[in-house]
Amino acid sequence: MLVAAALCPCPPLLVPEVAAGAAPELDVLRAACLDAIGVLAAARPDRLVVLGPVDEAGGGPYPQGAIGSFRGFGVDLEVPLGAAETAPNRELPPSLSVGAWLLSRTDWDDAPVEALGVARSLPRDRCLAMGQEIAAAAPRVALLVLGDGSACRTVKAPGYFDERAEAFDAGVASALGDADIAALAALDEEPAAGLQASGRACWQVLAGAARGAGLSGRLLREEAPYGVGYFVAAWS
User: Fold this and answer.
1) How many whole angstroms from its chain centre is CA 76?
2) Can you give the chain as a three-state secondary structure string?
3) Residue-wise pLDDT tens for the chain (236 aa)?
4) Rounded distance between C-alpha atoms, residue 175 and residue 94, angstroms
5) Residue 231: what are its φ and ψ, rounded to 5°?
């Protein structure tokens, strides 16, 4: 059963070494992410699953101890997913590497951890079913759910400007803050893809996992510093 969830964005710029001189711009966002993960620890889960958006090749499970690397972003930095004596061969994709980095900042050792790469294109029905399976896999499950909102908020955004972006992100922020699983489940796949909202599939996995759990939500942070919607929320 799902007992808690933390919702965080996953830009590699969250890692100060990657952001370099721009690192202070995201200090408040980083702090909010760590606060959200603190809610997971307080829930005393017996299993933590990290969900992150990936391309098709990166989908599937990653065990505790898997290594994330930021070398692709010009930084010689590796971070493991939780504590493990040996590192599996499969390297974490970027979104899950950010998740592993966030957990490392909290010295996570409250429960065994594993990760799951969720294809950005995964259909709604499969997302919801996946979430239900995750929630049923242990008596007390917590989720760290990674994903960004629209990447089309400004003309300098990665997806350029789209007039639909602000309203889309406002709806997501409201749903995450209210733990509104019906609103998350109803997110339309096509507009989300057009707006380059990487979090859509992961949020719908969360919606499936949260059915019947009776969780309440709190939006801790919302911003779009680079024309991309970033949200931090905690469900408990």
Assistant:
1) 23
2) CEEEEEEECCCHHHCHHHHHHHHHHHHHHHHHHHHHHHHHHHCCCCEEEEEEEECHHHCEEECCCCEEECHHHCCCCEEECCCCCCCCCCCECHHHHHHHHHHHHCCCCCCCEEEEEEECCCCHHHHHHHHHHHHCCCCCEEEEEECCCCCCCCCCCCCCCCCCHHHHHHHHHHHHHHCCHHHHHCCCHHHHHHCCCCCHHHHHHHHHHCCCCCCCEEEEEEECCCCCCEEEEEEC
3) 999 999 999 999 999 999 998 889 999 999 999 999 999 999 999 999 999 999 999 999 999 999 999 999 999 999 999 987 676 778 999 999 999 999 999 999 889 999 999 999 999 999 999 999 999 999 999 999 999 999 999 999 999 999 999 999 999 999 999 999 999 999 999 999 999 999 999 999 999 999 999 999 999 999 999 999 999 999 99
4) 25
5) -130, 140
**In contact, 133 and 194? CB cutoff 8 Å:** no
Of 66, 53, 45, 201, residue with least CA distance to 131: 201
Tokens of 77: 């930095």
**Cα distance between residue 36 and residue 108, in whole Å:** 13
Structure-token match 């989300």, residue found: 192
Structure tokens at 123: 């259909």
Q: Is the pTM of this model over 0.85?
A: yes
At 54, list the tokens.
């990936």
- Distance from the Cα of residue 58 to its chain's centroid: 15
